[in-house]
Design a protein that fits this description.
321 residues, alpha+beta, Phosphorylase Kinase, domain 1
Length: 321
């Protein structure tokens, strides 16, 4: 979440008249995240999330994102729901941007998750993978190999400004992944961005999953690798095998991974680390001054990529070979 596009109170009140949500009492921007402009609204009836979809999000993808939330919620996954306007539409426009109102999900994201929380994340991710079955709209992953190459092309010339030698290292990594990326593993709808700030807890209990704006059809094990990167490294950059084992055990308690999926984890983890390095690098180099957004350090994911490059066995992730 972030704020790139500001809104006025008058425009917001006019926008809300299209919905049956009560009167606006207050609103504020939410600075976390990088993709869309988000605001927390308080109305006379309930708190809500307002999302303005920025230029990186394709308007044609919005029916997938909004419909997926409805599909998953109908199958028992705890996630926010888009609210319909009085005319039944889920999407409106505010400040020149496509906009939607989303229900507010109770809970908080964890700054210091422990192994038991990682297990719950694994369970929820597997439940989402199962709940996504039967969703009729498809969306290809725009941030897989070809998307990485495109992002890299926009950043490569300035990469050595971030760290000397980076241009050659990432070019080599892209070449490796292009030749080793698996294509025949189980696939379906994945979240593709299940970071700590997209999972809410009430106490130690997982209360729901949010922010489906990277969701797409791709390999289930790729989603697992994203979570290994997002949840199982410590602040000092060390991989916590106890957290890795807990996350994988939680996932497999719902949907066991095949031997082929397990064997592919090191390559998939390299790819997912590269994916987040590249988007962070691009944002680091191009986010305009003054935007209410927290820029994230791309080197964090470079260090994770280098860890995965040295992995000799999947047992290093906490899973039996």
């Amino acid at each position: 979440m972030a704020v790139y596009t500001d809104i006025t109170e008058d425009d917001l009140k006019q926008f809300l008249r299209q919905y049956d949500v009560g009167e606006l009492t207050s609103y504020k921007g939410i600075a976390e995240g990088v993709e869309n402009s988000n605001f927390l609204l308080h109305t006379s009836r309930a708190p809500l999330i307002l999302t303005l979809y920025e230029k990186r999000v394709e308007k044609n993808d919005l029916p997938f994102f909004l419909g997926l939330m409805q599909h998953l919620a109908a199958r028992g996954l705890s996630c926010p729901l888009p609210l319909p306007r009085r005319d039944g539409e889920l999407l409106g426009e505010l400040s020149g941007r496509p906009a939607a109102l989303i229900s507010f999900l109770e809970g908080m994201w964890l700054r210091k998750p422990e192994a038991r929380h990682c297990r719950e994340v694994g369970v929820a991710m597997a439940q989402m993978h199962q709940a996504g079955e039967g969703f009729s709209i498809r969306r290809e992953n725009a941030l897989s190999l070809e998307g990485w190459r495109s992002l890299w092309a926009k950043s490569a010339e300035r990469a050595d400004e971030v760290e000397q030698g980076l241009q050659d290292e990432i070019a080599s990594e892209l070449e490796f992944l292009g030749g080793h990326w698996p294509s025949d593993l189980p696939a379906g709808v994945i979240h593709a961005d299940l970071f700590q700030d997209n999972v809410f807890f009430l106490g130690d209990d997982l209360s729901g999953v949010i922010d489906f704006y990277f969701a797409c059809n791709d390999l289930f094990a790729y989603d697992v690798s994203i979570c290994l990167n997002a949840w199982c490294f410590e602040k000092d950059g060390a991989f916590n095998i106890t957290k890795g084992r807990a996350l994988l055990e939680g996932y497999q308690s719902v949907r066991p991974l095949s031997q082929a999926e397990i064997a592919a984890l090191p390559v998939l983890a390299r790819g997912s680390a590269l994916r987040f390095f590249l988007t962070r690098l691009y944002d680091w180099l191009t986010t305009p001054a003054g935007a209410l957004v927290v820029k994230k350090d791309p080197l964090e994911y470079l260090r994770k990529l280098r860890f995965h490059r040295q992995v000799m066995s999947v047992t290093e992730y906490g899973v039996d070979a």
